[in-house]
Amino acid sequence: xxxxxxxxxxHSEVQIILDQFxxxxxxxxxxxxxVITGLSDQMKNIxxxxxxxxxxxxxxxxLNPGKFIIKLV
Length: 73
Prior knowledge:
Elements (H helix, E strand, L loop, with lengths): L2 E3 L5 H17 L4 E5 L4 H13 L3 E5 L2 E8 L2
Parallel strand pairs: 1-2
Antiparallel strand pairs: 2-4, 3-4
Helix pairs in contact: 1-2
């Protein structure tokens, strides 16, 4: 599973980086990807909002609240 680590990324840059990451993986016909947000509530909200724009399912990984699994289908 491909993953994107957002540690060290400015909040203002996340939308663009995440859009590119999702689009690249959609083109590769990936079923799901992981996005590592860390425990920042603001970072998690940015990721959730972006994923909602795509109407995708986004869930925190079990036992790891700093990582989302995003279903691309």
